[in-house]
TrEMBL record:
SMART domains: HDc
Stored Gene3D superfamilies: Hypothetical protein af1432 (1.10.3210.10)
Positions of the HD/PDEase domain: 24-136
This protein's UniProt keywords: Hydrolase
Entry-linked InterPro entries: HD/PDEase_dom (IPR003607), MESH1 (IPR052194)
Cross-referenced Pfam families: HD_4 (PF13328)
Superkingdom in the source lineage: Bacteria
Protein name: Bifunctional (P)ppGpp synthase/hydrolase relA
Lineage: Bacteria, Bacillati, Actinomycetota, Actinomycetes, Micrococcales
GO MF, one example: guanosine-3',5'-bis(diphosphate) 3'-diphosphatase activity
Source organism of the structure: Brevibacterium casei
Amino acid sequence: MNDDLLSRAEAVARQAHRGQVDKAGFDYIDHPRRVAANARAAAVAEELDDDSATAVIAAAWLHDVVEDTSVTEDDLRRDFPAEVVDAVIAVTKRSGEDVEDYFARVRANPLAVHVKTADLADNTDPARQARLDEATRARLTEKYCRAYELLGLEA
């Protein structure tokens, strides 16, 4: 794997998400870190080639930077290979976008499917869900079950 690319992706994610917290009040960067770890485990299990595995893990680190920070697609294109940025953009939700259109875009990019699956695995982790209040947990459980369905996967 290209450790330089992965280190750069991690550094950009850490800088971009500095000071952010998740719904439970924890440092937000822990989420991309776990998504990258999930992506790494899946890449090994699925025996992805080194280039694809590196791209998936880098995109996992970066998966929320365009959606949730001031980092732009152009910023990423200056620093990362097209396949990484394309996967990040595929999983980036657009304002007012229909959920079916969003998941159709994700499904059209195989690397994005890996990233989104790793993201959903973290978002549905029982330990993470347990930190949330009951109403938030119920709302998110419904949302994530629908996401798995729209990806054509089982929850």
